Amino acid sequence: AAGVIQSPRHLIKEKRETATLKCYPIPRHDTVYWYQQGPGQDPQFLISFYEKMQSDKGSIPDRFSAQQFSDYHSELNMSSLELGDSALYFCASSRLAGEQETQYFGPGTRLLVL
Amino acid sequence: AQSVAQPEDQVNVAEGNPLTVKCTYSVSGNPYLFWYVQYPNRGLQFLLKYITGDNLVKGSYGFEAEFNKSQTSFHLKKPSALVSDSALYFCAVRDSGTYKYIFGTGTRLKVLA
Lengths: 114, 113
Fold this sequence. Notes:
The complex is a heterodimer of chains A (114) and B (113). Chain A has 114 residues and is mainly β.
């Protein structure tokens, strides 16, 4: 079965640079979530989109922005990168089906800021 | 506010023995509870969920979880552990209003041969 695709899988950036992470949801899924998992920590919710509209916002820094496109893929744009942004970034997708909704996660993008 | 707690950072169990990974929750309203497993350098894989219905939920790879409303717990169990079950396990609760997940701090399961 098709899964969530994230690219790139690994990314190395310098401080103050920008990065763009991409997420391709499972076909026919209309909702995308972004999570950040720091070293040895649990995933923290950043932002979500439903039908191309932002549906919720969590602990996402102002330096980050995201959007969902007409084909439902999503991009997380990160500017003025800081050392503390080094983390594993997960995208999850779901088909908003009421209380039975389940999020399926991609393999993550590991970002290292030097 | 919704939250989950995983009281054990690590659980060690011998192969073939039953395993339990603990999770307690605090929610307002109906609890929507999930278990995910994370292998090294891999994403989070869905194991099972409790939405409503039977308190014993069966999931992938022989795992099951028991929802206990009076104890506000949702412990993950498996009758016979495998070495390949060694991984990081996360309990999560879904926010009733926004659908975002709130994760526990994770429990590292180590199954010893």
